[in-house]
Amino acid sequence: MGGRAKPAAAMVAAAALALVAARTAQGGPPPRVGDPFILRDDAQGRYLLYKGQTPRVSVWASTNLVDWARLENPAFVSPASLDCAAIWAPEVRRFRDGKYYMFATVLTHQQDADCIESMEPGWTPDAAHRRRRLGTWVFRANAPEGPFEVWSEGPVTPKDWAALDGTAFSEGGRPYMVFCHEWTQVRDGRMDAVEMSKDLKRAAGEPFVLFRASELYPPGGSWRDYCTDGPWMHRAKDGSLFMLWSTYDGGSYCIVSAKSASGKLAGPWSGHKIVRRGQSGHAMVFRTFDGRTAVAFHSPNNGEERRLRIHELLETPDSLEIGEWIGGEK
Question: Which residues are CB-neighbours of 173 under 8 A, at least 6 positions away?
Fold first, then answer.
């Protein structure tokens, strides 16, 4: 004699649970994320997406850039000794020693309480944009998913600066960090660079200026038009050196392409061109498993509404251009 048939409602419920389990295993839409960074993890055949979630950095994995599953353990949890009030713009690179290094902007509780001096005589930003010390720190791990631990001896950027969004760059076998000197301290936001010690623990020299935000727009705009944000260095197939960076175009966040005339970090940098508007910004570049060059960025630029967008990156002789959608949210 056969057993009793399951009621229709129970069968529907079982099917729904199976569907949820399958979706969880396969992943779902990417998280809402600002300042996205994607690392191609060749050893595991997957992509890793890092998201700053104060006081930690969480990680999602994907094999197709569309479906993402959150890893159980965060890549980094801030220790009490760091006094972390906020952490954002994490970037993870594998260096020659086989270790993984994360560059991330950190705001400590003490920094959040401070108000630093303006470096532009006779000028202060409006009250809604208080000057705070910000800096890019370096963290290290044995695996791309962490756990990362504090590695640098404090921020690599100057301690009395409002500096953020540090990104790694190597030239002539020497490591550098390219970063933004915030408009809230210098008014005309700067893109700076500093050579790092070979162990990536500290700065090995004084910062130097690559360009200022006003080189995209002439002086006289609103304060937002003086912003520099989210640098990313890209060496093109023909050897040209480009940078993607972000700013505001009449109050709307956008992505800018610039080119080094010398093909070297020191520049001079010119050809600043807006290549993506519509509240889009903080771009980074990576290679897909099928050989395409991809650019990831967030859009719109509205807090928790920020979404991951992944498009193909196109190279022209004078600029980088953003092509068709290939992943993230459409």
Answer: none
User: What residues does 232 pair with on adjacent strands?
Assistant: 244
Considering its fold, how many domains does the chain have in total?
A: 1
Tell me the residue range of the domain where 246 lies: 100-134+151-328
pTM across the whole model? 0.89
Identify whether 169 is part of a domain. Answer: yes
- Number of neighbours of residue 161 by Cβ within 10 angstroms: 22
Which range is least confidently modeled, 23-27, 133-137, 269-273?
Answer: 23-27
Q: Is residue 202 part of a domain?
A: yes
pLDDT of residue 219: 62
Of residues 162, 166, 263, 269, the one with CA closest to residue 212? 269
Flag whether 61 is in a domain.
no
- Report the C-alpha gap between 273 and 329 in whole angstroms: 25
Q: Report the CATH number that the domain containing residue 212 is assigned in CATH.
A: 2.115.10.20
Q: Per this entry, what is the length of the chain?
A: 330
Q: Is residue 84 part of a domain?
A: no
Helix (H, G, I), strand (E, B) or coil at 56: strand
Query: Are the CB atoms for 49 and 40 separated by under 8 Å?
Result: no
Instruction: Find, among 169, 171, 187, the residue nearest to 179 by Cα.
Output: 169
How do residues 234-276 score in pLDDT, each as one tens digit? Answer: 999 999 999 999 999 888 999 999 999 999 999 999 999 999 9
- Best CA proximity match to 137, nearest among 177, 187, 109, 79: 177
Q: How far apart are CA 312 and CA 293, in angstroms?
A: 6
